[in-house]
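Subject: complex prediction, re-run

Hi both,

The earlier run crashed halfway through, so I resubmitted it with identical inputs.
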Amino acid sequence: LAKTTQPISMDSYEGQEVNITCSHNNIATNDYITWYQQFPSQGPRFIIQGYKTKVTNEVASLFIPADRKSSTLSLPRVSLSDTAVYYCLVGAHNTDKLIFGTGTRLQVFP
Amino acid sequence: DTGVSQDPRHKITKRGQNVTFRCDPISEHNRLYWYRQTLGQGPEFLTYFQNEAQLEKSRLLSDRFSAERPKGSFSTLEIQRTEQGDSAMYLCASSPWGMDRGLGYTFGSGTRLTVV
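This time it finished cleanly. Structure:
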């Protein structure tokens, strides 16, 4: 599975847009990019997945450039409840297991 | 079915004791995974089942660890002769086989083990 690199931590204020970038230079042709969110004392929760260009859902947007060597998770107008750890994962659709890195710890301040 | 259930939520045990955790997956999910997570780290894969068959075990899963899924429904993870280094959150997840794994993975809230 492709190794990912993301910032260890980020700070933001309520109402701001937050962009978390993940590098995955060795991404394979059949790999997808998936982001998970984890609150303290809970298991990770799926946020969004994409292969190329842009994907948007009710929670976030995912921007993937043409070379696919990086991706950016965009959280619009964050609130205090968005304080969590965000994981970027790269792998094929039919991979048997998810491999997590250390994630990005997002702290949102009032 | 409200999701993946794990029991207990918290467990404190003395070093050297055996502990067993239970995971009840979403009923229609035939894949079940165990992960371990220590403070400040992402979840680490331990093992997974497809129905009752254990298909892969991580090197992290020493011989003191054993997992079962006897009827392809709930699963148990047992740790024998616990050590302080076993203190962690143990997470269970399930997914339907063949489905887009990113969308199909559902995690439980975990069992937090503290070995004293």
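Chain B touches chain A through 26 residues (CB under 8 Å).

- K.
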